[in-house]
């Protein structure tokens, strides 16, 4: 007989996540980020740059509805260039 992937406690925790309302702005649990009592408990850190997303945005910059209908349906895959360490 195969061993179950999750024990009963882990399964219950995973199922409970379905009951947690998520914030549509930050994606975190709404009960934390929307609690007025916690408004001063949040600290924003310095921004970090995702160079993959920068490349994607640069590539998409010149694409318009005139040059490519339904531009919002396009995906711009990125790949890491092998520099031959």
Give a quick rundown of the structure:
The protein has helices at residues 8-16, 30-33, 51-60.
Secondary-structure map:
Elements (H helix, E strand, L loop, with lengths): L7 H9 L13 H4 L17 H10 L25
Description:
- This protein has helices at 8-16, 30-33, 51-60.
- Helices cover 27% and strands 0% of the residues.
- The protein is mostly helical.
- The model has no long low-confidence stretch (mean pLDDT 90).
- It has a domain at 12-38.
- The relative contact order is 0.07.
What string, H for helix and E for strand, traces the elements in order? HHH
Number of strands: 0
> What general outline do the C-alpha atoms trace?
extended
The proportion of residues in beta strands is: under 5%
Helix percentage range:
25-40%
Termini Cα gap? 47 Å
Mean pLDDT: 90
Secondary structure class reads mainly alpha
Largest sheet: none
* Integer-rounded radius of gyration: 21 Å
Instruction: Give the number of helices.
Output: 3
* Uncertain runs: none
Which structural traits does this protein have?
extended, 85 residues, single chain
């Amino acid at each position: 007989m195969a061993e179950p992937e999750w024990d009963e406690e882990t399964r219950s925790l995973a199922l409970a996540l379905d009951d947690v309302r998520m914030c549509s702005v930050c994606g975190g649990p709404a009960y934390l980020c929307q609690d007025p009592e916690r408004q001063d408990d949040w600290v924003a850190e310095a921004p970090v740059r995702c160079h993959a997303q920068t490349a994607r945005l640069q590539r998409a910059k010149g694409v318009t509805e005139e040059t490519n209908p339904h531009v919002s349906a396009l995906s711009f895959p990125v790949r890491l260039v092998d520099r031959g360490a």
